[in-house]
Target: Patellin-6
Amino acid sequence: MDASSPISLQQTPHQDYSVSEASPKPYKKSLVTSLMEAAALRTPSFKEDTYFISHLKNSEKKALQELRDKLSVSYGSDATSECSMWGIPLLSNDEKADVILLKFLRARDFRVQDSLHMLEKCLSWRKEFGADDIVEEDLGFKELEGVVAYMHGYDREGHPVCYNAYGVFKDKEMYERIFGDEEKLKKFLRWRVQVLERGISLLHFKPGGVNSIIQVTDLKDMPKRELRVASNQILSLFQDNYPEMVARKIFINVPWYFSMLYSVFSPFLTQRTKSKFVISKEGNVAETLYKPEDVPAQYGGLSRPSDLQNGPPKPASEFTVKGGEKVNIQIEGIEAGATITWDIAVGGWDLEYSAEFVPNAAGSYTIAVEKARKIAPSEEAIRNSFTPREAGKMVLSVDNTFSRKKKVAAYRYFVRKAAIA
Model:
């Protein structure tokens, strides 16, 4: 890190805010990778495909052509409306159609007849279910939006991320209101498909593009017995009709009994699907998932619902804090009357955090904006603002002097100048 870096590092607390050449370098590895490497129960073996025809084996190219031919025989060359998905005609013989056909082939290990059968069943289901028009429907689940299942942000490779959290259903009244009878369950499943379809609408469907999403499932407080039927139906429906649409299935806040729950729905999953699973132990979730600015605050990220009204999120900076060290983040050039707002994610690392404003004028006193305190593992990202009466700099401190382990944090800031009278 060069001398222009706003981060300085020190071995023990002191008031020298000069930048050290030993400042930590930007953290290259995604935080979710760090999380899962440290706490995974199962290591994913799945490698995402590129969908370039040139990357296929000869046998796979032959299977793709054979599937095209069989599909053409089944539906006829002019059956475009009957044989399309997500607005892409499957008989068009272009790269977008190939991406979809390859998804079905891979789901059945390139067994052409099995892939064709799966594809035909899916086309029939989509027509009967009305999947092509479901995104625009008002299904009346406003209380679940942004809580139970929702699309939010992207990972570093550009995959849309879908969050799922079923802990709210531990409330018996809500559970009965949503899952009380067969009709209610069907309506919920329809809503859950709607959320997935919204995510799929963000995909590229082209070789080398983003052709799948990330699923993050929060198991905190999930009533395992009550949701068993709904969970099995969702898994079965998605696996049968949305093959290869998930790049990673990440489980967070995993309780001790998850292995028993996993054994219940495991028989419904293919080996290829199970290879995409990443499972985190309970209590290891406060670390930031993916890009901090895209991750909801409740999961250690910096994103809040109100932020989405202001356009794309402002990028955050990630940094490491070695054991026995303290990092100071300096934000200089703050004018008198300007308001600085900052976000910093340090929760879950057992780090100590504080914030001070240091005036430029000689003889002025440093202002303790936030006194030093330890951040609890479950605490959300910090957001605070300060409007100084004189020019100076803000110093955010992250203290890891009481630990020997290297840890990770992230921050960003906004400065709004004072209005001219």
Remarks:
- Confidence is low (pLDDT under 50) at residues 10-43, 282-288.
